[in-house]
Amino acid sequence: MARHPVFSYRFAKIHALYVQKAQRKQRTSEEVDQIICWLTGYDAAGLRQQIEGENDLETFFAEAPRMHPNTALIKGVVCGVRVEEVEDPLMRKIRYLDKLIDELAKGKAMEKILRQ
Fold first, then answer.
1. CATH code at 109?
2. Mean pLDDT over all residues of the chain?
3. Name one Pfam family in it (predicted).
4. I want to staple 42 with a disulfide (CB 3.0 to 4.6 A). Which of 24, 47, 70, 112 is the partner?
């Protein structure tokens, strides 16, 4: 099976796009980072290191300290695809993150986004 091209996208570029999307909807880069850290287990320093290290998405998720145990509660559609039905584990993680950032941009409360 061929490797999906999105896996080689630079996380720093994706992060910048997430921040832009959030800011267009009057949300903050801090909220974006909070979501990313919640999902992946990175702390602020680890997240900065991933951004500055120019790692790709595959490396970013491979080096993540731990995926949050409540990721199974992330459900819904992103780009016409149900995140809970994505078979490839790496693509599912990417879609989880996309879904959470979409929820942020749509004005959802952080408590709900973080499945608390």
1. 1.10.8.290
2. 94
3. DUF2200
4. 47
Average pLDDT over residues 28-50: 97
- How many domains does the chain contain in total? 1
Q: What tokens were used for 107?
A: 């004005």
Three-state secondary structure call for residue 56: strand
- Which token pair is 41? 């287990």
Report d(CA 27, CA 106) in Å as an integer: 10
Contact 96, 18 (CB under 8 A): no
Q: Tell me the C-alpha distance between 95 and 93, whole Å.
A: 5
Q: Give the predicted TM-score (pTM) of the model.
A: 0.93
Residue identified by tokens 């909070």 is: 34
Answer yes or no: are the C-beta atoms of 60 and 94 closer than 8 Å.
no
| Confidence tier at 1 by pLDDT (50, 70, 90) | low
Query: Cα angle vertex 68, ends 66, 70, to 5°?
Result: 155
